[in-house]
Amino acid sequence: MPHCIIEYAKPLEARLNPTELLNAVYEGASLSGLFEGPDIKIRAIAYEAFLTGAEKSAFIHVTARILNGRSLEQKQRLSSTVVKRLADLGLADISITVEIVEMESDSYAKYLT
């Protein structure tokens, strides 16, 4: 945990490799001090069709799904470290957002083979 889902405007791929997004979010989650490296899971989805307000502006949105029980301060630390690492990529004319979503641990299921 966490599961970090990166959604981004596909035209950004002309300015950076999607692996850079994965690495930045991984580093941000790790720097939060809340998770061990092997527990951080990240995936990315590129969108070709999107509107940001009334425009077609570049965006990166990260949803970080974590098990419930973290304090507000911990959730704020996670979102701010992830935003900072993404901002450090130096992209111009972009909206970067992070949303922390709590998952109910009593109903979360996992199966590994």
From TrEMBL:
Q: Is Transferase a UniProt keyword of this protein?
A: no
UniProt enzyme class: isomerase
Tell me the keywords, alphabetical order.
Answer: Isomerase
Its domain of life reads Bacteria
Pfam family for this entry, one: CHMI
Please indicate if the UniProt record lists Hydrolase as a keyword: no
According to the UniProt entry, its GO molecular function terms are:
5-carboxymethyl-2-hydroxymuconate delta-isomerase activity
- Assigned EC number: 5.3.3.10
Protein's name in the database: 5-carboxymethyl-2-hydroxymuconate isomerase
